[in-house]
Amino acid sequence: MSQTVLVTGASKGIGLAVAEILLRDGAQVVAVQRSVTAGLAALQQKYTDTLRVVQGSFTDEDIIRRAVAAFGGLDSAVFNGGVNEPFGALATLPPDGWQGMFETNVFGVVRALRIVLPELRGAAAGARVVLVSSDAANHGIPTMGAYAASKAALNSINRTLAAEEQSIVSVAVHPGVVRTDMYTAFTVEAKAFAPPELLQMAEASAVEPVEPGRVIAALALRAPKELSGKYIHWNGEEVAGL
After folding, report:
1. DSSP string, 154-180
2. Which of 22, 44, 52, 221 is most exposed, with minimal Cβ within 10 Å?
3. What is the pLDDT of residues 68-83, one digit of tens each?
4. Could you give the CA distance from residue 53 to residue 156 in angstroms, rounded to a whole number?
5. Nearest CA to 82 among 39, 119, 136, 161?
6. Is residue 133 among the annotated active site residues?
7. Domain 4-232 - what CATH class?
8. Where is the Ketoreductase domain (predicted)?
């Protein structure tokens, strides 16, 4: 029987890549995002029986309820939706900038988890939750304090989720430097404070969304129990055999 996977932020970038890979692997996918891009619309036409698109913000509880009901159940969830703006130094970024960041990257995930967890506990094949995090959580990057703190909070939620929900494998993943709109926004902003060699290094290591997408999709379908609660890199040795 096909697994049903919820994917947030599925209109482009990593989320779209994950959704397409899951569909090719025979999974049923519920895609949640604010807008339907040409790429997602093309997937809709190709996978009419196994893809359901729920348009709206994943921070909206009603949208998540609609997503859970799309196929009548849920086996796994990939929380990929998030924001990395506004940028701003600790001394200048106003509190509402922090609040907006946490509202999406942290509280949006918490709200969604409260709705999907009852469904995931009963998954016949064993449920998985994959949280798309960032290595920014482990570094002090000028003007990205709010984003980094939100991802650190997400990693903490992952550890707690693994401890509280023993039947669910929960994994936080650093997807690397990925060529997405978020990456482009960062490179533009970073020119004001980052040394050129740092930007050159980021560009040299940047990968296309499909590369971490393959790993995230594999984790959503078959992440082993021993990874539960861990924060891993998309190309780390822990995922080499997936």
Report:
1. HHHHHHHHHHH-TTEEEEEEE--SB-S
2. 44
3. 999 999 999 999 988 8
4. 30
5. 136
6. yes
7. alpha beta
8. 3-181
